[in-house]
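Quick one: structure tokens for this chain, please?
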Amino acid sequence: MIMSIKVRYFASLKDRVGCAEQAIHSSGLSTVRSIWHAANPDKKLPDNILAAVNMDYVDLDSPVNDGDEVAFFPPVTGG
């Protein structure tokens, strides 16, 4: 089954991937990690990246479903 996933990038990741959001239409997408690789086949998954599915923070091995929104955030630092 071909799934449609909306992918969003925030902060410095927008510059790194060259866009703020994109749509992925593919089969074989099962986890947040697989979404990153499908959307960015030529880019390494950054260390300590944060991810959310439908606005809930998840780990990279969390499942995704057709119609989900997956967001990626760079690590947050504060002081």
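Residues 3-73 form a domain with the Ubiquitin-like (UB roll) fold (CATH 3.10.20.30).
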